[in-house]
Amino acid sequence: MSRRNDKNLLVGLDIGTSKIACLVGELKDDDQIEIIGIGTHPSRGLKKGVVVDIESTVQSIQRAVEEAELMAGCEIHSVHAGIAGSHVRSLNSHGITAIKEVEVSQADVDRVIDAARAVAIPADQKILHILPQEFIIDDQEGIREPIGMCGVRLEARVHMVTGALSAAQNVIKCISRCGLDVDDLVLAQLSSSYAVLGEDEKELGVCVIDIGGGTTDLAVFTDGAIRHTAVIPIAGDQVTNDIAVALRTPTQYAEQIKIQHACALTQLTANGEMIEVPSIGDRSPRRLSRQALAEVVEPRYEELLTLLHNELRRSGFEDLVAGGVVLTGGSAQMQGLIELAEDVFQMPVRLGGPQHVIGMEEVVNNPIHSTGVGLLMYARQHRVSRGPELAEHLGLKGLWARARGWFQGNF
Ligand SMILES: Nc1ncnc2c1ncn2[C@@H]1O[C@H](COP(=O)(O)OP(=O)(O)OP(=O)(O)O)[C@@H](O)[C@H]1O
Ligand SMILES: [Mg+2]
Questions:
Q1: Domains of the chain
Q2: Among 51, 109, 191, 358, which is least packed by CB within 10 angstroms?
Q3: Residue minimizing CA distance to atom 9 of ligand 1
């Protein structure tokens, strides 16, 4: 990146099913992130969080990046990118190692994490994250930062996230085709959790749910660490589709009607309010009550929330999330959703937007940007680029070298 000091710029690229957003943040002296540029472009090449059309995705990424570069007055060379999709799996694992020299060193921590990652995973899946939950030194549990502590035996509990090799490769391919390096691939809901959750919520136990266009992503935190992640391939696009089918109206109108008039709770619409619905072909528009619209929307949201509730129950953490549920993502803005969700989950629910950053609040302070803002916060915490390591892990070393070569040749 030119113009500004390279080291102080962070870039997040949220590759969503509905939109691609590129956010540029500047790291201030007090470690705060100020958003200085944002570019968004409708996403055309993804289905349910997965790239299905490389060419369209590349074009959308390029547009979003160019817009962000223009606004921030910088050149973007590398990004932290989000990844989602129902190919994502997660599991908790455990590793043990001997402490070499009485005091725990970084090498001991690396070894114990390596031991924890030694789990059989399907051949078409690759590890995306190994997230330490806690360390145990000689039966002393709950250690967050083991380096420097004394003991004989070091154990680690970790949360492992894996994803389909091809899905990760395609995301990287699209970004590389834009002449950009990937510093890291970050699970979308992990990223959103950085932006919308407070530390106290993570300590107390909380379930964050990002309802986007193509996927709904869930993550559970207790005692300050991530415990469970899941992806459900139902989200806002399904609601739009239901409206299009039930009201016999083209999808683009269904989307407009949804955003302007829909409600996830029928009982909130019982005042006889009417809306106008454009018809297909040259038939004349019809009038319809808002209540009838809500009757289409409510069952789909209810189904989704029930699936999420079952997932939370299955994970075994339902009784441990005392902080309740935090909904984010574009489709979480539906009127009446919080009340419906409280009814399904039987616990407190709130709508969460990106917090903890400054600058461009009027644009960024929107639940659709939770993943993008979270990517910047993740990047701040993990300053070392994992790009080359990731490329090797995903069998993309050649591509990496090519992308770099192309890039160096052009600038
Ligand atoms: N005010 C609103 N009320 C209801 N739904 C909304 C509203 N605004 C946007 N949406 C819906 O939010 C969805 C887009 O959300 P978002 O931008 O978070 O998705 P995405 O990140 O692109 O997709 P995904 O995360 O699933 O890959 C669309 O389905 C859109 O219809
Ligand atoms: Mg999203």
A1: 236-296 (3.30.420.40)
A2: 358
A3: 330
